[in-house]
Specification:
One of its GO terms (biological process) is dGTP catabolic process. Pfam families: HD, HD_assoc. Keywords: Hydrolase. This is Deoxyguanosinetriphosphate triphosphohydrolase-like protein. Helices cover about 60% and strands about 0% of the residues. It has helices at about 30-40, 45, 65-85, 90-95, 105-115, 125-135, 150-155, 160-170, 180, 190-210, 215-220, 225-235, 240-270, 275-280, 290-310, 315-335, 340-345, 350-360, 365-375. It has about 375 residues and is mainly alpha-helical. It folds into two domains: about 30-185 and about 315-375, Hypothetical protein af1432 (Orthogonal Bundle); about 190-315, no CATH class. α3 packs antiparallel against α4 (about 90-95) and α3 (about 65-85) crosses α10.
Length: about 375
């Protein structure tokens, strides 16, 4: 059977804009498959298993980590990509790489490092993910980083301030940061990863929030997206209670959002009829989207989680101690670079080297280092 025809708006590995350093093609894999494999075998990817989402890594073995989150994003992304005729391998590569730059202790770590790096370029986890794949991984004899394709790197760079975009564009004119300077969007595959990230986040934070006891189901039923699928689950299975009811509710929520994305995106593609991936990049609005109704429901759930989970006193207490750990580590390393491994200690950009070293740590390694350097046990 012949493979289905690739739609003109989908990314095509045979027409990739290439790698920064040209390499011979792989004999058995497409360029995007090769990128995915390099990401999976990277040191930064393996460390995601011990980096947290909301809960500290030691708080329980069943809560999500950056690794499980990345796998969930990849699964959702591939399912949607298959229905829309997009390149599944590119979606998977971007999904698996999008959190490589996250610090230990979730967003608390990013905020601390950004404060520590004021005056030295700041810190942003999305830019750090790009630094990991472009510079920090050291696995190959002829280049630093993973030397990924333009399309994969374009998807990894999800956010970028104008100041950082200007710096990237100066080094790579017309490259992955140009859209942040002149408008435009990334490929549909990259847009899909952005939305799959949001869907996965909301669903697993509902699950982890209830599992942890920080959110009560009664609270969640105030949120329309949860309530309608909880009621539908009960109507179909009146005997369901407890975690089975919660899981069925989340499953239905996920399915509804996936089908909504597929339908809304198909409608947008039918209206605009982009004839190339560049037409997607220059469209007036992103073409991979929720319907307006689902966008409103997803946003309401996100606001609920922010107010009731991310700002919960127990989470905030943990966050405060995590922030102290990273502030102390940064001060210790800047004050004595010999406390870091030689390849970081020998770099002339002392503050950036310290930020790179700390950002690469797992939660538990950061805690061990903090105890070694300060003699304190905060957790």
């Amino acid at each position: 059977m012949l493979p289905p025809t690739r739609p003109p708006y989908a990314a095509d590995p045979s027409r990739s804009r290439g790698r920064r350093l040209a390499e011979p093609p792989a004999p058995t894999r497409s360029e995007f498959q090769r990128d995915r494999d390099r990401i999976i075998h990277s040191t930064a990817f393996r460390r995601l298993v011990y980096k947290t989402q909301v809960f500290m890594n030691h708080e329980g073995d069943l809560f999500r980590t950056r690794l499980t989150h990345s796998l969930e994003v990849a699964q959702l992304g591939r399912s949607i990509a298959r229905s829309l005729g997009l390149d599944e391998d590119l979606v998977e590569a971007v999904a698996l790489a999008h959190d490589l730059g996250h610090t230990p202790f979730g967003h608390a770590g990013q905020d601390v490092l950004d404060a520590c790096m004021q005056g030295h370029g700041g810190f942003e986890h999305n830019l750090q993910s790009l630094r990991v794949v472009d510079h920090l991984e050291q696995r190959y004899p002829h280049f630093d980083g993973l030397n990924l394709c333009f399309e994969t790197r374009e998807g990894i760079l999800k956010h970028c301030s104008r100041r950082h975009a200007e710096l990237i564009d100066a080094a790579e004119p017309g490259g992955i940061a140009t859209r942040f300077l002149h408008g435009g969007h990334p490929s549909l595959e990259a847009q899909l990863c952005n939305l799959a990230d949001e869907v996965a986040y909301n669903a697993h934070d509902v699950d982890d929030g209830v599992r942890s006891g920080l959110i009560e189901l009664e609270q969640l039923l105030e949120v329309e997206l949860v309530r309608e699928h909880w009621l539908a689950a009960l109507e179909a299975h009146p005997q369901l209670t407890g975690k089975r009811l919660l899981f069925e509710t989340i499953r239905r929520m996920l399915s509804a959002q996936v089908y909504d994305i597929i339908d809304a995106t198909r409608a947008a593609l039918e209206t605009t009829r982009p004839e190339s991936i560049d037409a997607v990049r220059h469209a007036e609005k992103p073409l991979l989207r929720f319907s307006p109704e689902m966008r409103a429901k997803s946003t309401a759930l996100k606001r609920f989680l922010f107010a009731n989970l991310y700002r919960h006193p127990q989470v905030q207490s943990t966050r405060a101690r995590a922030e102290q750990v990273l502030r102390d580590l940064f001060a210790a390393y800047v004050g004595d670079v010999s406390q870091m491994p030689p390849d970081f200690a020998s770099r002339p950009d002392r503050e950036r080297a310290c930020a790179d070293y700390i950002a690469g740590m797992t939660d538990r390694y950061a805690l061990r280092e903090h105890q070694r350097l300060t003699g304190q046990t905060l957790f």
